[in-house]
Amino acid sequence: MSELTNTSSDLVLDIENLAVRFETDDGIVRAVNGLDLQIRKGRALGLVGETGAGKTTTALSILRLVPKPPGVVQCDKLELNGRDILTMQTKELEKVRGKEVSMIFQDPMTALNPVFTVGDQIAESIHLHENVSMTEAQKMAIDMLELVGIPGERAGDYPHQFSGGMKQRVVIAIALACHPQLLIADEPTTALDVTIQAQVLDLMKSLRQKYQTSLIMITHDLGIVAEICDEVAVMYAGNIVEMGTLEDVFNHTRHPYTEGLFNSLPNVNDRKAKLKPVPGLMPDPTDLPEGCPFYPRCQYADEKCKLPQKKTYVSDTHFIRCCAYDRPGFHIEREEKS
Amino acid sequence: MSNPAFTSADLRAYKKRSLSQEVWRNYKKSPSAMIGLVIIIAIVIAAIVSQFVFNYDTDIVQQDIMNRFQPPLTEGHLLGTDQYGRDELTRVLYGAKYSLAVGIVSVAISCLFGCTMGLIAGYYGGVVENIILRFCEVFMGIPSVLLGVAIMTAFGQSLAVLMLAVGLVYVPMFARTARAAVLPVREEEYIEAAKVSGVGDLKIIFSHVLPNSLSPIIVQVTMGVANGILSASFLSFLGLGVPVPAPEWGAMLSSAREYIRDYGYLCTFPGIAIMVTVLSFNLMGDGLRDALDPKLKQ
Amino acid sequence: MFRYIIKRILMMIPVLIAVSFVVYFLMDLAPGDIISSMAPQDATEAELEMMREQWGLNGPLIERYFRYLGDLLTGDMGMSPSLRRPVAEVFIERLPATLQLALAATVVALIISVPLGIAAATHHRSFLDGISMVLAMIGVSMPAFWLGLLLIMWFSPLGLPSGGSGTPLHLVLPALALGAGQAGTLTRITRSSMLDVIRQDYLRTARAKGVSEKQVIRKHALKNALIPIITVFGSTLGNLLGGAVAIETVFSWPGIGRLTVNAVNQRDTTLATGCIIMFTVLLTVTMLLVDIAYAYVDPRIKAQYSK
């Protein structure tokens, strides 16, 4: 992966061979399987995939917030700004959370504590990480609220007094209060009305530019990725099946699953066109196939797909996990756009 | 995201079962609930068998002054003898019938009156509901023990009055539980449908409303037996319940109280009997609640 | 909020009148009356009638009751024939002892139950969880008066006083006996509501902010878990007052519980009715305080009250 990066010191996040499993009564759920991920300073990565692909679990692993038990996290490398997260002492880790990396959760309705004022919830983060008094932190929290477009005098209100979109703004304010180097946004707009979605995305975009924050945008909405991200990683059954720049993945799609994702999008130019869904379901994460997890649903699959798949580089910035390109002349049906 | 709501195993396990089978299947899963059930069965058997094995006049109440205060583990007296030389184990076993009878009959009384009131209040609403709720409020305002004391004093001490007193004390609790259970059912469309098709109110209540509000009532019944036994034993302890020399556990504790310094075992065994009985009903109540509403189970 | 409190207090009045009616009539049903037991053996019917008039107990039941109620509504709780003193005076004299006992028991219950319940929830399905649930269940199932007897048996040989009142030491055993049952109930509810809260998303938000695990539990989780805990706490207060009657009997504690039981036993209708009414007032007022405490914990409820 050194092709993707200029120097290793430029990396905000460096994950190698991450595996997360949940040991439940009904069996071992393999949520993430050998995932590699790197993000450079100031870049935005879209992590795309269907529900259950392991996106949120990957994100939680970065903050070491995977519930344990039943979760077990293993990896060769999990570094944030060059420091190993996995072996970090709890105290150290608490200083990193919210300060160097913070997270926006999917559902703003449940992400805020109902018994504290929103001002206090933002101030708490500032008070924990910046060397300021609580009164000072509260003042800064009000500034933060105004920054995300909520009048400062509402700092004394409780979450139940806010609408969903407003709550998500508060969550964003909490996440950005200490200007983290890395922001993980887990489907930040899924629970919101479409009109509010655009506002929240714009807000995130402008704040990110302002603070030069790196971003992992977890979503299943390819439109959001196109709007915000520089790079895209497509996840399927706990691993990245295709990753590259926005241009690489969107216009030079290689992996059959990515192709399926694009084909299932409605076409704005041809609204009457029939959607082509990806047939079948994700494999049961307690019982993953040994080879490519997508082959039972893949129209191009052959015998070799039942073997473990290696990373194959299409270009310096673009890789896939698919052996189909070993076949001479293979191409998927989605035409190249450039 | 990584917690699949449905696994294929869930779907395979899905079969159509009757409610009681389903409840029993869930109930069996809890070891503590099963322990409770087994102990209750054992107590019931002990209570019934001791009625036939022991003679009330010669084994239970006849005094044997020569053998007073034999300590536990004496030959022939596993739990020793009391201040009149009567075998403690025999009396404790025989006494099970009082606690069980009071617990069960009093709950039957409070359930019958309470549920009727609660169903009527919940089904009709309006003024009727208001009157019934105010009535409950009055009786719940008085600490239940004091209400029990007043009723026992008013109607005299006997097993029957004790059952009635304990039963009446818990009527409001059942009324509120039943009403709360009916409220959501009242709005259901099948009730509306039954009304439109001209089914009588009484028939609707018994064939539609009641079966669908049963779960919380069943739990309340089990817990009610536990509470009833506790209350009855206290009233007997105060000398207001089953009159001596009947071996009611609370009454036994009351008469053992003056020997507490020297013959502590007399104050121990009847109490253990009360505790174990109440504990079993509580365990069963917990188990039933989890079994009836698997969603609540953790 | 203020208007809500006033409304609740006004709503108490009809309940209290109904309580007085129920208790007064029940007491009248009881065989025997206080006057005949107070009067000398050879008292004539005329003398008895005179005594009844003196204590306001003459005339038919309905008339007597309404005379009592009339006095009650003007704030006069009458004279107790058995103690030959005003009911209000006796009650106020005895009240602090019961309040002291109830408060001490509640403190005992809270000190045991809240940390134990939290520990059980944060170590879900561990040995600690199991053992604390067993203990809680035993606490709930144990008759308070029997626990009192056991405590006397175990600790009075060690020098702890087993009866009477006066020193803080006298309070130890009664408070333990009374608090155990409440501790059991509260441990169970603390555990289950903490288990509920622990799975909430907002705790993950707090952790993601860098809040330490200790603070996540103590600050973020506990304040939310308090809402159901307070509800159940309120509902245990009735049991607590009832339990106080039992404990006062066992430990000869000079409180209003024993006063009431004695009044009933002696057929002192005036004293018994007065005491039970005051018990009801006590219970209702504590319930109201619990409801107010609610509003301070849960901003959503506070908002409802101010509407």
Q: What keyword list fits this structure?
A:
heterotrimer; A: 338 residues; alpha/beta; 8-stranded mixed β-sheet; 5-stranded antiparallel β-sheet; 10 helices; 13 strands; C: 307 residues; mainly alpha; MetI-like fold; 79% helix
CATH class wording of the domain at 94-265 in chain C: Mainly Alpha
Radius of gyration of chain B using CA atoms only: 23 Å
Strand fraction of chain B = under 5%
Mean pLDDT of chain C: 88
Helix content of chain C: over 70%
Please identify the structural class of chain C as seen in this structure: mainly alpha
For the termini of chain B, the CA-CA separation is 20 Å
Most extensive interface: B-C, 41 and 50 residues
* The CATH superfamily title of chain B: MetI-like
CATH architecture of the domain at 94-265 in chain C: Orthogonal Bundle
Low-pLDDT parts of chain B are: 1-16
Count, helices of chain B = 14
pLDDT averaged over residues of chain B? 85
Shape of chain B: elongated
SSE layout and pairing:
The complex is a heterotrimer of chains A (338), B (298) and C (307).
Chain A: E1 11-24, E2 27-40, E3 44-48, H1 55-62, E4 71-74, E5 77-80, E6 83-84, H2 90-96, E7 101-104, H3 108-111, H4 118-129, H5 134-147, H6 164-176, E8 182-186, H7 194-211, E9 214-219, H8 222-228, E10 231-236, E11 239-245, H9 246-251, H10 256-263, E12 312-315, E13 318-320
Parallel strand pairs in A: 3-9, 3-10, 7-8, 8-9
Antiparallel strand pairs in A: 1-2, 1-4, 1-5, 5-6, 10-11, 11-13, 12-13
Helix pairs in contact in A: 4-5, 4-6, 5-6, 6-7
Chain B: H1 8-13, H2 19-28, H3 31-53, H4 56-61, H5 88-124, H6 126-141, H7 144-155, H8 159-169, H9 171-186, H10 189-196, H11 201-212, H12 214-237, H13 249-256, H14 265-292
Chain C: H1 2-29, H2 34-38, H3 45-54, H4 61-73, E1 79-80, E2 85-86, H5 87-122, H6 127-141, H7 144-155, H8 168-198, H9 201-209, H10 213-250, H11 256-265, H12 269-297, H13 299-306
Antiparallel strand pairs in C: 1-2
Helix pairs in contact in C: 1-12, 5-6, 5-8, 5-10, 6-8, 7-8, 7-10, 8-10, 9-10, 10-11, 10-12, 11-12, 12-13
